[in-house]
Design goal:
The chain is an all-alpha fold. The chain contains 11 helices and no strands. The longest helix has 29 residues. InterPro entries: DUF2189. This is DUF2189 domain-containing protein.
Amino acid sequence: MSANIMREKMMFMVTWEWLSRGWQLFKQAALLNITYAALFLLIGLAVGTVLLHQGFSIVYFIAAGGFLIVVPGLVAVYYHLAEVIQRGDKPGFADILDGVRECPLAIMVLGLVSLVIYLIWITDALIIYSVYFDFVPTSLTAFGTDPALRADVAAFLVFVSLLGFVLSFITFCITVFSIPYAVQKQCGLVDAVSFSVKTVTRHSRLMFFWAAVLGGLTFFTVLFALPLLLVVLPILAYANYATYNDMLRLMESK
């Protein structure tokens, strides 16, 4: 078996282990995890209902992509709950409030940065939408019968997907480990972001694959199976917490 195949196999095995550990942490307080995720589900349902009712089916694609940019800061509470579980305690609803109240300044700044990137994404994506569709309702129901619309939709999706990939990967690099690091260490912004970027760049192949797993599962859940967000969101947050702990030990051993 070649070295490349072995590396690919190990990468899949490690990723599966992180997801499994995320599932185990999720089960420790399933109702609590689902309750917190329900806040974002309700927002998603409201946005999706409005857009689909108004005929802006394709714009919902933009909204789903934008969620990938802002979600790292939103799941910081799960990292706090994971810390509670790791201490051997049973988390309760009060711990959600504690997670918000004790949120380090570094995470607030990262949340603001993510919001700025999100606004850049929304603005640019809507500008591209207006170029192709004059900002009028464009339903996917006409997609199969109108060749011109089909070509425009395909081109639009290619452009916004490329833009979304760049912005979401930038967000991933600066937030994927900086937020759990800030929660655990109660450190400043520079230390947290430096740790995250350094870890991603030193293990770029594995981290790129991990970004694809996190982003892909989140995006397709929001786009096609929104109610599953109740379970998928906390599991992925806890899986990333497991990833962070492994990467932290690896970086500290060097």
